[in-house]
Amino acid sequence: MGQRVPLSSIWTNRALDPDDDISKLAEHINDSGLQVPILVSSDYILIDGLRRLKAVASLDQTTIEVVAVNLFDQAMAWIKRAREHGVEARPLVPRRIAELYAACRPLMNLSRSLKMRGVQYGTGVRVGGRPSFLDAIGLESESYLQAVTQIYRMAERDDDKGRWARDMLPLVDNETVSPYMALDYVRRRTEKGNVVKLEEQRLVVMNTRAALTGILYSLRQLGPLDPELNRDTEGLIDDLRRMRRTLHQLINRLTKEQTQ
Question: From 1, 20, 103, 126, which residue has the greatest number of CB atoms within 10 Å?
Answer without folding.
Answer: 103
